[in-house]
Design goal:
Elements: H1 5-14, H2 22-25, H3 27-44, E1 47-56, E2 60-63, H4 64-68, E3 76-79, E4 85-86, E5 97-99, E6 102-105, E7 110-119, H5 138-141, H6 144-153, H7 158-183, E8 184-185, E9 188-189
Antiparallel strand pairs: 1-7, 2-6, 3-7, 4-7, 5-6, 8-9
Helix pairs in contact: 1-6, 3-6, 6-7
Length: about 200
């Protein structure tokens, strides 16, 4: 399941605007609100993506920010908090070092391996089509309208904004708890905590 920009936009309109023309009359405010909300949300519920890399048996470094960029937009936030595994073996890759976005692969690493990283979502713009699938997963994206409404309303109606912020924060905590419960097996995390 995915949540689209159009669905989130309609949900935001339903959270305090009386007219369907609210978006067209407040486009910059809506876009700023949803982009702030998206940035905040992925700090709490990261979007984790796999990256297939290859160790050649000689030391090398790879700029993960450049490798994951889309149209000159940096997508790499940081490495995910889980080990890198050799493809097909389940064996943990040893000796990798990350400094900023530069990954140092030692000569001892040979073969394909998967490194997981946290991704920065693309910004929503006035040109973003309504059918654009939002990058946070469906459940995280369902929180976006309330967070965006908080940013939209915080100057004009602080009470309403605080209400939406509290609802969103509660849903974030519930989703984090559910993901941790779903992923813990025998006291050890056994799946990806994805945002």
């Amino acid at each position: 399941m995915i949540k689209t920009w159009g669905e989130v936009k309609n949900d935001i309109i339903a959270l305090g605007f009386e007219q369907a023309t609210a978006y067209s009359a407040n486009t910059a405010l809506f876009l700023a609100g949803v982009n702030h909300a998206q940035s905040y949300l992925v700090q709490k519920l990261p979007i984790e993506k796999p990256l297939l890399l290859t160790g050649t048996g000689s030391a090398k470094s790879v700029d993960l920010a450049a490798l994951t960029a889309v149209q000159d937009t940096v997508r790499f936030a940081r490495a995910a908090l889980r080990p890198a595994y050799y493809s097909g073996t389940g064996k943990v890759v040893q000796g990798l070092r990350l400094q900023g976005s530069l990954l140092y692969i030692p000569a001892t690493v040979q073969g394909d391996f998967t490194l997981w990283y946290e991704e920065i979502p693309l910004k929503i713009t006035a040109d973003t089509p309504d059918d654009y699938p939002l990058e946070p997963d469906y459940y995280a994206a369902c929180i976006l309208p309330k967070l965006a409404a908080y940013y939209i309303w915080r100057d004009d109606d602080p009470q309403k904004a605080t209400e939406y912020q509290n609802l969103a924060e509660g849903e974030i905590l519930e989703l984090l708890a559910r993901r941790q419960t779903d992923c813990v097996s025998g006291g050890r995390v056994s799946c990806v905590l994805q945002g």
